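Please supply some protein, with fold tokens.
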Amino acid sequence: MIKKLVRFSICIALISALLIAAAFGMKIYNEDYVESSYPLKYEKDVEAAAKRYGVDKYLIYGVIKTESNFDSDAVSHVGATGLMQLMPETFEWVQSYYVDETYEDYTFEDLKDPALNIDYGTHILSILLDMYDGVEDTAVSAYNAGVGNVNSWLEDSEYSDDGKTLKYVPFPETENYRHKVAQNKSCYKAYYTDKEERTK
């Protein structure tokens, strides 16, 4: 709990610093510290996947940061693998319904490769974003909890007022996850958009 509060505080402090800096035309944060906390690792692979599938690169970074914190060897207790923590059944689903010459020769073990893991994970995000009309929070919730669970929550007025967005979800892990992804994406976007503006 303490670690979560610290990470949240860092992000809020960063966004606040960026807003103040923008207002006064100055830099009041340590770039090395921010970039070590929110690195652009695997940038070439993220950029390629973002372009290929039309997914915001900062959302991809937000998911990677939340899922594995950039540990390409990460394996969860339920078998999720790699940077974007893909499950065997999700891999098989993509292979079965979205297979093309790019994917046909790969196995689940190949997802330990960062470039392939990012490509598959981003492909899945793009499918979910299309499924939920571009509502990132809903797509991210499905990425974590599965389409079946999210669809049932959207149909329940306790969890959704409009059938598109979620007020909250009954799985604490997913409720926490969707907020963490949004927080991490916001931190990435705030810092690196500001940096791009300053270096033009």
Remarks:
- The mean pLDDT is 87.
- The chain has one domain: 41-198.
- The chain has nine helices and no strands.
- Residues 64 and 84 are 5 Å apart (CA to CA).
